[in-house]
Amino acid sequence: MLSGLSLRLRIFLFFCLLALGGLAITAGGLIAGYQRAGQPELFDAYVFSGLIIGFLVLALVTGVWLLFDENVAKPIERLAAELRVRAHSGVAGQIDMEAAKYLGDLAPAANAIAGQLAQTAEEAATSVATQTARLAAEKDRLTALLSEIPVAMIMVNPAHQIVLYDAQSAAVLAQVAHPRLNASLFDYFEAEALQTAYARLIKTGKEVTATLKGTDGAQSYDAVLKPLGDAPGYMLVIDAAHAQIAPDAARPLIYDFDLLYAETPAAFDARPLKDLCFVVFDSETTGLLPHKDEVVQIGAVRVLKGRIIEGEVFDTLVDPGRPIPKASSEVHKITDAMVQGAPDMISAGRSFHSFCRDAVIVAHNAPFDMAFLHRYGPKMGCNWDHPILDTVLLSAVLFGASATHTLDAVGERLGVTIPDALRHTALGDARATAEVLCRMLPMLEARGLTTFGAVIAETRKHGRLLEDLN
């Protein structure tokens, strides 16, 4: 039972036991002395002496506990967190020796291990870098080649979830909703025709033609379903000659082949963290009062399999329908002129809701940002019932409640820097929060918190910091 408690709490309970033991010994000694003296008129004197001794014992134990907590327990907690950061998040650098100066040789020994680990990691990174550069160049050539072919290609697993899409297919999917890895094709195309064609593909083992309609009812596509040979799933090829792609637009080839072998999802709380899709977002507002201020910008990125999906970004200004206070503009640099013609919160919120479909929403101090979405939810016609992770609470789990949990402080601990030009922009802060999340996930798993339910249970121990939105 005690093994589930934090080190500091266990030490606190130890000192409580020590205090109770001291009080019990004091009381026992005074009672024995009083009985031996056999003088009733000294009762008040014994009681008074007992109170004085008891108070002094409590003061002594409390003082020693405070010194121990500040100079031993907290440094051990911080040292353990720093070691986990270096072991699981790829962060190098010296360990803070000053904070652990009363721990004897423990901090220098930990620093030596961290230095050796960093050296080994650097050597491995150098070896991998050459191969990575070669693969990146090959991917760029493949992407450029595919971008010139007037067909949209989407690789799909047997559960009809997107495993790969190119620039043309992104343009096709975007006519209905935001293109997203791991999203169901049924979010974009009506299910009946697609399921019928897939059943024929499974039966014959040969490619099948089909006419697919968009779920918005406004689009219709001639498509071919092609088998993938020995691999599960299929390739969906769509005539995309009419899909307009701006000449200077980014033409990504976005994929994760591990999704081909995705298993049937377990109950959500039992799902491994590494299998979850996260949408990490931030908002800029006219002020700090969610019940009456307005949103002026929403930015978000998607994280899948512990990495940021570079081509899947949500970024929009929002017309707040009122003047932006000068003090707020000085922080986020968004002015009234910039939001003219931007969508209002209802329209922007609906689009963002589509971007968040089937994902865990992540934010730094999530109750603040989510309050605006919940407030406008009824007007949007959207139910914001997504699972929520808050990086403030994750920081408390990993670094202790006594640490500082601002985005800048957490980023500094994890080696994540926010360029000055992007700080206090919705997309810039969302990107930084996503990088923080990606470095936290292996640290959580290393502590045995491998499922969403286990992480939420752990964050609830720090409920005094923030509201639990789950």
Architecture (CATH level 2) name of the largest domain: 2-Layer Sandwich
Which fold name fills CATH's third level, the topology of the largest domain? Nucleotidyltransferase, domain 5
Overall mean confidence score, pLDDT: 86
Q: What overall geometry do the principal axes of the alpha carbons give?
A: elongated
Structural class: alpha+beta
Q: Count the strands?
A: 11
Provide the β-strand percentage band. 5-15%
N to C succession of SSEs: HHHEEHHEEEEEEEHHHEHEHHHH
Q: What's the tally of helices?
A: 13
Instruction: Classify the helix fraction into a percent range.
Output: 40-55%
Largest sheet: 6 strands, antiparallel
Strand line-up of the largest beta sheet? 3-4-5-1-2-6
Overall radius of gyration: 29 Å
The CATH class of the largest domain is identified as Alpha Beta
Low-confidence stretches are none
Number of domains: 3
Distance between the termini: 25 Å
Q: CATH homologous superfamily of the largest domain - what is it?
A: Ribonuclease H-like superfamily/Ribonuclease H
Structure write-up:
The chain has 470 residues and is α+β, with helices and mostly antiparallel strands. The model has no long low-confidence stretch (mean pLDDT 86). Strands 3-4-5-1-2-6 form a 6-stranded antiparallel beta sheet. Strands 9-8-7-10-11 form a 5-stranded mixed beta sheet, sandwiched between helices. It folds into 3 domains: 2-115, no CATH class; 149-254, PAS domain (Beta-Lactamase, 2-Layer Sandwich), CATH 3.30.450.20; 266-462, Nucleotidyltransferase, domain 5 (2-Layer Sandwich). Helix 9 links the parallel strand 10 and strand 11. Helices cover 47% and strands 15% of the residues.
